[in-house]
Amino acid sequence: MHARWKRNTVVAVMAVLVCAAVALNWKYSGQDAVKDIQETGTKILGEATLVSGQEGTDEETGAPVDEDAVYTGSDYFASARLTRQQARDNAISLLQEAAEQADADQSVANEASEGIQVLASYTLKEAQVENLVSAKGYKDCVAFMGEGSMSVVVSTESGELTGEDVAKITDIAMSETGLPASGIKIMAAN
Asked: What pLDDT, in 10s, does the model give residues 156-171?
């Protein structure tokens, strides 16, 4: 009984730490990047040639790329996904190190393995929710899952979510994660 409580505590603490790391990294990296863009006038995410093959122009419209739009619109979603993945990778690395320590007993290795499985499960469920929400016709979506909760940020044509939108997205999140509606938070991207 004591080992189970201990294991659950370690998993819960790791999940909270991962969520905190994602939130902090997301908050501060975005602020630093915007500040760098304003100070230096250079982009952080790379040149437009990486995507369009045409230096400084949008592939669809041929118009010059807006340098200040790097962290707005769909790039917000790419940045959020990258930050989430980096935080998960760091947490998994820490768990693997804990499991591989020579003086670690079997219970620590088992707890670390379970923690890795939980994070992998979160990643899979987030991807499923994101894909299904996008399939419903929304411009973009990013999901963040934690222990007993999920936050979903959605981009719509109008920039706002209706009650019907929230109901659709909540239904998708509930069916994919098994979470109750009270554990799911839906937000529109600004």
From this structure: 888 888 999 999 999 9
